[in-house]
Amino acid sequence: MKIEFSSPLSNVENIIDSLKNKEGALLPILHAIQKEVGYIAPNTIERIATKLKQTPAEIHGVISFYHQFRTSPPGKYKIQICRAEACQSRGSRQLEEHAKERLNIDYHQMTSDKKFSLDSVYCLGNCATGPNIRINDELYGRISNEKFDQVLSNVDRDLK
Amino acid sequence: MTMKIFIPRESTAVSLGAHDVAQAFTQYASRHDIDLKIVRNGSRGLFWLEPMIEIETAQGRMAYGPVESSDVASIMEDITHNICNEKPPCHALSLGLTEDIAYLKKQTRLTFARAGIIDPVSLDDYLALDGFKGLQKALALSTQDIVTSVVESGLRGRGGAAFPTGIKWQTVRDAVAEQKYIVCNADEGDSGTFADKLVMECDPFMLIEGIIIAGLAVGANQGYIYLRSEYPIADEILQHAIKIANEAGYLGNDICGSGKRFHLEVRLGAEAYICGEETALLESLEGKRGMVRFKPPLPAIEGLFGKPTIVNNVLSLAAIPFIMSQGSHAYQQYGTNRSRGTLPFQLAGNVKQGGLIELPFGSSLKDLIDDFSGGTESNRPIKAIQVGGPLGAYLPVNKLDIPLDYEAFSKASAVLGHGGIVVFDDSVDMLEQARFSMEFCVVESCGKCTPCRIGSTRGVEVIDKIKNNDRRVENMTLLNDLCDTMIDGSLCAMGSMTPIPVRSAYSDFPQDFYLPTQESNHD
Lengths: 160, 523
Description:
The structure holds two protein chains of two kinds.
Chain A: H1 9-19, H2 26-37, H3 42-52, H4 56-65, E1 77-82, H5 85-88, H6 92-103, E2 109-110, E3 116-121, E4 133-135, E5 138-140, H7 145-159
Parallel strand pairs in A: 1-3
Antiparallel strand pairs in A: 1-4, 2-3, 4-5
Helix pairs in contact in A: 1-2, 1-3, 3-4
Chain B: E1 3-6, H1 11-15, H2 18-31, E2 36-39, E3 53-57, E4 60-64, H3 72-81, E5 94-97, H4 102-105, H5 123-128, H6 133-139, H7 143-153, H8 165-174, E6 181-186, H9 195-202, H10 204-218, E7 222-227, H11 232-247, E8 263-268, H12 278-285, E9 309-313, H13 314-326, H14 328-332, E10 335-336, E11 339-340, E12 342-349, E13 355-360, H15 365-372, E14 382-387, E15 394-396, H16 406-411, E16 420-425, H17 430-444, H18 450-467, H19 472-489, H20 493-497, H21 499-508
Helix pairs in contact in B: 6-10, 6-13, 7-8, 7-10, 9-10, 9-11, 10-13, 17-18, 17-21, 18-19, 19-21
C-alpha cells in the first residue's frame, strides 16, 4: 500500500471534485484521501467542508466517529490485533500483552521510530483460525507470540 | 495435458499462506516443465485444512491440506507419480476426493453450493452452475409474483433480527415513491461470523443476482453494498464481479435486454460495529456519523435519503437466486417450525475443525458441535459457547441440547442471530467475558441513547467492583438493575442486548462471580 505523508493539496482537491457529486459522498471522500495521504489533515477538513457545503465541525464529527479515520500521520505499518471473542478463546489476550511488550507501546500509540502503530480491531472475520492480526491490508492467522515476532521481523526487513 | 490445480484466494486461506503456496506451485511447474493451470477459487469453508488445494481428476477433485510452500514439491510428486497414473494418492496431506470429506458431505449446501468450486470472478463458471437462472425467471414475472415467491419461501432475515424478508419486500413494493433503494448490509461485525465474507469472496455473482432481483421486485434501480473495511479481499472481488456484471449486461441500463435498469455500488464502512444496525448503516451511507435512528418510520417506508429502502443482510439476498430458480417450495421444504430453509452456521473459536456448516434449521446445537468441531483445539473441556455474536448468550455445556431455530433460542433467552458459534474451553473466566461485553459496548456504542452510552461504562465499573470484592452482593444487585435499564431503555439492539451475554455469564457461571453455585448449573 502506498502511503505518503505529504501530498499536494491539488490531489486532495481532485479527489473531492471527482467524488463530491455522489450520493452520500463524505465517506468515499474520506477513504480516498486517507488512502492517498495516510490521514486527513485539518486544512483538508476545511476544503471538504467548503466543497460539500457543510461546516468543518460536521466533517470533524464524522471523522472522529469512525475508528478508521485519523487526523495525524500514521506509522508506516498499522498493526491491528483482533480483540473479539473468537480470537480471545484462542489466546488473543496473551498475544495483546506480548505485542505491547515487544513494541513497547500501548494501543493507539506509535513506536518512536514511527515504523509501527498498534490498534485493536473487533473482528477480522477469521474466527476459526485466530488469534488474528492485520498489518495494513494484510491479514495473518494463527498468530502465536513467536509468529508475531516473525511476521514483524519480516515486515521490518522489507522496511530496510 | 494441462494439469489444473485450485488454490483459494479467500481471506482465511490467504492469511495462512495461500499466495505463497500458489507461487511455489508456479515455480515448481516452470522448473519441471509441467503444463499447469492454477485457478484461484474460493474456499469450501473447511478452515482447519486451509490452504486446501485441489487437483482436477477424472473421478473428481482430489484435495490436500493444510498445505505449506515446503510441501509443494512432495505433493507434486504424489500427483505426477500416483494421481496421474490413476493410482490413489499417498501423501500425508492427501484428503482424497473433496466431495467425500465428511465435514462437507454432512451438510446441505443451498447458498454455498458453488463456494470453493468456482473461480469467484468467472462468469462462465457461475453460468455453468445455474447462475443468473433466478434472474431470468424474475424478469418474466410481475413484481408481485416475485415478492409472493419470497413470502412463500418462508425466508427470514439472516442478519439476526429474523424479520420475514417477503413482508419487508412487500412494504417497499407497495410504497409509492419516485426513487427506491436496495441496501445490502455487508457489515458483518459479529465475532464468530464469516459467512457473508465467504459469499462475497467465493460466489459474488450470487449476491449481485439476489440484489438485482430485489430491485426488480420493488421497483428500485439503485443498490448499495455497505461493506466493512475490515474485508479488503471481499472488496476487491466484489468490485471485479460488479464490473464484469456491468459489462455482460446483468447490471446497467438494460438488464439482459429487458429495458429495466439497475446500478450497484460498493460503499466501505470505517470500523464502526454499530453501522451493522440498519438505521445507523443508512446514516453512514448518507455521509453522517453512524447514529441509530428512531423507528418508526421503518426504513421500508423512509430509508436511505428518506426513500423506501430494502435493507437486507448478505445471506438473505444470497438465498434469493435459489428461491427464484428452484421455487419457493424447494427452499421452504427445509427447516423446522417458522425457521425455514438453511442457515450457514459458522463454527469458530477454540475448536479443532472450525468452518462453515450449512444445515437446515432444526438440528441441535449439541449435535452440530459433536458432529463437526472435532473437540477443542486446546484439548481441554468445553466450558461455554457463545452463539449469535457479541450480543448473544454464553451457554454452558448442560444447555446445548437446544434446537437450532429462532424461536427455540429466543425461548432459552439466547440468540441465534447470524449463526456464529464460538467455543471456549474451561480456561475462560466468565467475569472477564461479561466485563468485555460491557467494554465492547463502551467502545462501539453510537452514543445516542443514555442507557447504552453511559450504562456500559457503569457496567464495566460495577463488574470491576465485584471482581475486587467491593460490596459484592450489593453490586450484583446493581448490575442486575443496570441490565434491566439497558434492556428497557436502549434505542437499539446494541444497548438492549449487551445484557444478554452479561446475564448469561453470571446466571450460568455463578462461581466466576463468586456467587453460590446452583446445582442445576454445575455438576
